[in-house]
UniProtKB/TrEMBL annotation:
<feature type="domain" description="DDH">
    <location>
        <begin position="19"/>
        <end position="160"/>
    </location>
</feature>
<dbReference type="InterPro" id="IPR001667">
    <property type="entry name" value="DDH_dom"/>
</dbReference>
<feature type="domain" description="DHHA1">
    <location>
        <begin position="238"/>
        <end position="324"/>
    </location>
</feature>
<dbReference type="InterPro" id="IPR051319">
    <property type="entry name" value="Oligoribo/pAp-PDE_c-di-AMP_PDE"/>
</dbReference>
<dbReference type="Pfam" id="PF02272">
    <property type="entry name" value="DHHA1"/>
</dbReference>
<dbReference type="InterPro" id="IPR003156">
    <property type="entry name" value="DHHA1_dom"/>
</dbReference>
<dbReference type="GO" id="GO:0003676">
    <property type="term" value="F:nucleic acid binding"/>
</dbReference>
<protein>
    <submittedName>
        <fullName>Phosphoesterase RecJ domain-containing protein</fullName>
    </submittedName>
</protein>
<dbReference type="Pfam" id="PF01368">
    <property type="entry name" value="DHH"/>
</dbReference>
<dbReference type="InterPro" id="IPR038763">
    <property type="entry name" value="DHH_sf"/>
</dbReference>
Amino acid sequence: MKNNNWAEAVNFLQEGDRFLVVSHIHPDGDAIGSTCAVASILDQLGKSYTLINASGVPEKFAFLSHSKRILTPEQVREGDPFSRVVAVDVADAERMGDIEPFIAEDGHILNIDHHPTNDRFGAVNLIIDHAASTTEILCQLADELGLTWDLILAESLYTGLLTDTGGFRYANTTPAVMKLASRLLAVGVDAAGIADRTLETMTQNQLQLLQRSLDTLTFADEGRIAWMWLSRQDFIMTGANENDMDGIVNYARNVVGVDVGILFRETSTGDVKASLRSREIVDVGALAQSLGGGGHARAAGCTLRGSRNEVERRLLDQVKQRLREGSES
Ligand code: 5GP
Ligand code: MN
Ligand code: MN
């Protein structure tokens, strides 16, 4: 045991029963991979549990065995609220969506996460911000619990590791990550198959959404900032949903000379969700947090209120200022 948190997390899982396992809304591969990995861990511990995600499971992660058991709030049958909750890859409680009715008043949350902006909302917090993915933390937790990495667990762990490192390309791709990936492949994980499903395959809806967003691509600050917009109309016309936006913001960030890429999206509530990606100068996690959101230094997001012009100006002013500060230091 490296410190208290590991022991507390182990106790939380070993001593409790009837867990609710939850991740963040609009789940990515780490969110679903972590939820499924905790299910495997609880299976091995002989515990009962319910898996929930306020947004459901994107089709591309449906290959993970336990994902079929992830329920939307509407699908959870009436019953006592849960007194033991495991939140994975969730930076703040709000990111779980509307699942409060399922948590008992005296309920305890085990908060396992790698976001530097995590606000430690759990009764027990296992926050390792140098971990590349939440599943990297779960690899170690499974070891601490003395469990076997069977194929179903390994596929879930690998999916989080693969997707949160952008296919082992981002700066969080450490020797530790590669060692874990190697161990997971040795269990029999189909690396090519998972990469194809989660990183390469696009639906027609997604491609049409990309097409529309590229139409709005705009540059500022001598090409150091690039941004795009997706309106409600874009989603209606393409039949796409919010899960189909995955990866689109990278097209802005990837342009040569760009440090910060942004995708603005009008939400159904009339707000604007901004996804931010940066190359090396601006810490977009800190920027997003200053605007009520959060994330990592290179990938973050926040929700803003106001007209299209106002929101755009407010965020771009912040980015420009931080680019200036970053370039000076
Ligand atoms: P994305 O742009 O893909 O939605 O999110 C990128 C990263 O920022 C993810 O790690 C995600 O968890 C985090 N993130 C995005 N939006 C928010 C937000 O509104 N609040 C917080 N705390 N984190 C966010
Ligand atoms: Mn995530
Ligand atoms: Mn993650």
